[in-house]
Write a structure and sequence with these properties.
This protein is α+β, with helices and mostly antiparallel strands. It folds into 3 domains: about 130 residues, no CATH class; about 130 residues, L,D-transpeptidase catalytic domain-like (Beta Barrel), CATH 2.40.440.10; about 120 residues, Nuclear Transport Factor 2, Chain: A, CATH 3.10.450.50. About 20% of the residues lie in helices and about 35% in strands. The protein contains 8 helices and 22 strands. The strands form 5 sheets. Strands 2-1-16-15-14-13-3 form a 7-stranded mixed sheet.
């Protein structure tokens, strides 16, 4: 927990922090008075919102919060919620007292994959000051990555963590430059200036097993978890979190939430999700809510972080600068059905590149076959490739669409690259309607341009 001499300052900071929203949730049968709460989470849940109490209009919400601890002081686990039906999440958990990094996988239950020796700061305790040679504690995320062909003081790779985060800022913790990295010398216990150091072979192995950029890193003196099933249901809280995760400029727009996860450590709770906003095209981003739990039934939304990725504009092709007759111009415009197919290709490509297996397979027709594999076998095959490759890049260009009743084809150039393979090809996706939606029925690739390729 927070040091006693800092806890008062921490709570005071929470009460006056700009952009703070207080969530009051009751446990048991206590109702929230709508005359005081009166609002649900909406665009007021911004970084600049001003201390509104968020209630549930007389509806009781059971919230686990900091009460996932039992009498022995242990939490059920670091994951308070993980969206059902989404792909498993990996966790990097570092226990300073034992100088151990644990790699876990969570798919409704915890599986410990591997342990690594991991050195932390020369001086024990939580980091508070610049150059105090201590390692911070909390829930952190990779925000920068460095790789080198030669071995340096950081080994051949280093993964920066987002210390200090908003919790550290409120507590007055200073400093920065905290990395998970290798070394050019033998790693010994409590030997760093505050970073987390692995042997080069170990960090290379960890890097192959997980995408560190997408993997939460939880650091503590001891890990306060029993790694059991979460006993309390957070489902009623999720709609509020979803509304708050969405930036105000996209409020009310249809949104897909991928991999929505709520993490807990001591007084800190972080909700994180990858999102696809169906604006003019498709906007992808990662949103995080930083929620402090200074009391048993109190959560304070301290900050939201929104990292927007490239926007995919749904158009079949750019208009030419030439002047064309009005009739020809109207005919050249993609129809609504063609736009939907082009959007399907864009969404399929994105899910493939991001290794979101369920979303990727969701673009396929139940009758799909390829390379002698049915859809189930194709999913297994693609999942194996995802596990084998740390990163996948898929680019498409020149999308053209033909529609003939209940059948359609999308033609485009595809440029694929992974850790072990790269190719450029002419791609044809054959679509069929299933449940009123276009789904991929067959797909074909060739190095040379096939006959009948649209101009």
């Amino acid at each position: 927990m927070i040091d006693k001499n800092k806890k008062g300052k921490y709570l005071a900071a929470l009460c006056i922090a700009a952009g703070m929203i207080v969530f009051l949730f009751t446990i048991g049968n206590m109702d929230v008075d709508s005359s005081e709460s009166g609002q649900t989470v909406s665009d007021n849940a911004s970084d600049n919102a001003s201390g509104n109490a968020i209630g549930t209009n007389k509806k009781t919400v059971a919230y686990a919060g900091t009460k996932t601890q039992d009498d022995d002081g242990l939490w059920d686990g670091p994951i308070l919620y993980h969206a059902p039906g989404t792909k498993p999440i990996h966790l990097i958990l570092i226990e300073k007292s034992t100088q151990t990094l644990y790699l876990y996988r969570y798919d409704g239950k915890y599986t410990r994959i591997k342990n690594y020796f991991c050195a932390s700061g020369e001086k024990q305790g939580k980091k508070h000051e610049e150059k105090d040679e201590k390692t911070p504690e909390g829930i952190y995320f990779n925000n920068k990555t460095y790789r080198d062909k030669k071995i340096t003081v950081f080994g051949d790779r280093a993964f920066g963590l987002n210390y200090p985060d908003i919790f550290d800022n409120l507590t007055g913790n200073k400093g920065g430059g905290i990395f998970l990295h290798g070394s050019n010398r033998t790693v010994t216990s409590f030997s760093s200036n505050g970073c987390l150091v692995l042997n080069n072979a170990d960090i290379a192995d960890l890097d192959k097993r997980v995408d560190i950029k997408q993997t939460p890193v939880i650091i503590g003196e001891r890990l306060p978890y029993r790694f059991g099933t979460v006993k309390r249901d957070l489902s009623e809280l999720i709609p509020f979190l979803k509304q708050t995760l969405l930036p105000e400029k996209y409020a009310g727009m249809p949104t897909d939430y991928d991999e929505l996860t709520v993490l807990g450590f001591e007084d800190r709770v972080v909700a994180t999700a990858r999102m696809r906003v169906k604006a003019d095209g498709a906007v992808y981003g990662t949103s995080r809510l930083y929620l402090a739990g200074p009391g048993k039934t109190l959560l304070v939304l301290v900050k939201r972080e929104w990292n927007e990725e490239k926007k995919e504009v749904i158009v079949a092709q750019k208009a030419t600068a030439e002047k064309v007759p009005a009739k020809a111009a109207a005919a050249s415009k993609p129809t609504g059905e063609k736009k939907r197919l082009v959007a399907q290709v864009a969404s399929w490509r994105k899910a493939w590149e991001q290794k979101r297996l369920n979303a990727y397979i969701g673009h396929y027709h139940p009758g799909f076959t390829s390379k002698g594999k049915n859809l189930s076998q194709w999913k297994t095959y693609k999942g194996q490739l995802n596990d084998r490759n740390r990163k996948i890049s898929v680019k498409v260009s020149g999308v053209r669409v033909k529609i003939d009743g209940q059948k359609a084809q999308a033609y485009f150039r595809q440029h694929y690259r992974s850790d072990t393979f790269k190719s450029s090809s002419y791609k044809i996706l054959d679509f069929r309607k299933n449940g009123g939606k276009w789904k991929i029925y067959r797909e074909n690739s060739s190095v040379g341009k096939p006959s009948g390729w649209p101009r």
